[in-house]
Amino acid sequence: MSKVFKAACVQMNSAAEVAPNLESAATLIRAAVGAGARLVMTPENTTLIEPNRARQLTKTPREEAHPGVPHFAALARELGIWLLIGSMPVRADERRIANRSFLFDPQGGIVARYDKIHMFDVDLPNGETYRESNGVKPGEQAVVAQTPWGALGLTICYDVRFAYLHRALAQAGATMLTVPAAFTVPTGQAHWHVLLRARAIETGCFVFAPAQTGEHAEGRRTYGHSLIVSPWGEVLADAGEAPGYIVADIDLEQVAKARAMVPALRHDREVERPHGLMRAASE
C-alpha cells in the first residue's frame, strides 16, 4: 500500500449524554471520509463529557455493554476506514472508569485498545485539588498498533507531557502518534501547540491530536485546535475553535527524512541520576 494517504482529526463538543455524541461523531466522521480521509481520529471523551463524577459513573457501562463499540465498528465497516475513537469512557470497576482509545479496522474489528496511563492529580496554589486517579483507573501498557501505512503509537491527553512515553513508542516502531485530548483553555493556550510540536520533533513522527472544543456541561470549556503535525514539527492543519474536522496528506517518507537529519532516537545514553545539588565553592 502507498505510504501517502489522507488522515483526519475530528473536533467535537461532546455533551453529557452518550446518544447525541454518537450521532455528532458519526456525522463528522462521514464528512472527513467525504474529504478523502482513510484514517479518521476523534477526541478524548468522544462519547461522554460529564463533569460530575457520580453521574459519569452511572452513565458509563462496561465495554461489552457500551453502545459506542458496535456503533463505531459498524461505521468503520460501512465506510471502509481505519477509525480511532480517541477515547470512550468505559466502566473499569465499581468506582472507576477506564479512559480507553479504540482502533477499528475497515472490517469493524478492534485492532488495539489503549488506557490512558498518566493521571492528572494536582494541588493548586489557590487551594483547589484535582484527583483524576480517584475516578479513572490508569493504564499500565504502552500500545503500538499496525496499520497499512505504518505503526501507530497511542496516547491520550495528559500523556503528552511525558516525553519518554512517546520516545518509547517511536523506538518500538511507531511512525505516527495519536494524542486525542480535552485540554482546558488556559493550559491549551499556554502549552498545546508547543507540546505537540515537541513530541513530533523529538520522535520524528507525525502527530495527530483530535480535540474537544467549546463549552460543555457545567461550564467546562475546552481549547480545541485539533492539530496534525509533521515529523519536522510543522503544523499541517489546525482546526481552530469550532467543531468540525481537518484533513492532511500524510507522506511517511518524511519520517525517514526527519530522522536522518536528526537521528536522536539512536543516541540514547545511560545517565546516572543526580544525588543532590552541589554546594557552592564558598560553602
Can you name the CATH architecture?
Answer: 4-Layer Sandwich
- What is the radius of gyration computed over CA atoms, rounded to a whole number of angstroms? 19 Å
Question: What is the CATH homology-level superfamily?
Answer: Carbon-nitrogen hydrolase
Count the domains.
Answer: 1
- Shape verdict: globular
* First-last Cα distance: 65 Å
Uncertain regions: pLDDT < 50 for 5+ in a row?
A: none
- How many strand elements? 16
Mean pLDDT figure: 94
What is the number of helices? 7
Largest sheet descriptor: 6 strands, mixed
Query: Could you say what the CATH topology is called?
Result: Nitrilase/N-carbamoyl-D-aminoacid amidohydrolase
Helix-residue proportion: 25-40%
Structural class: alpha/beta
**Helix and strand succession?**
EHEHHEEEEEHEEHEHEEEEEEH
* Percent of residues in beta strands: 25-35%
How are the strands of the largest sheet arranged? 5-4-3-2-1-16
Q: What is the name of the CATH class?
A: Alpha Beta
